[in-house]
Amino acid sequence: MPTESATAPAARPHTARLGLGTAAVGRPGYINLGREADLPAERTVEALRERTHALLDAAYAAGVRYLDTARSYGRAEEFLAQWLTKRPEAAAEVTVGSKWGYTYTADWRTSGVAAHEVKEHSTEVFDRQIRETRALLGAHLDVYLVHSVTPDSPALTDPALHGRLAALAAEGVRVGLSTSGPAQADAIRRALDVTVAGRPLFSAVQATWNLLETSAAPTLAEAHRAGWLVVVKEAMANGRLAGRNATGPDTAALRTLATRTATTPDALALAAAAAQPWADIVLSGAATLDQLTSNLAAADLCPTPEDLAALAMMAEPADAYWRNRASLPWA
Question: Residue 259 in 3-state DSSP?
Answer without folding.
Answer: helix
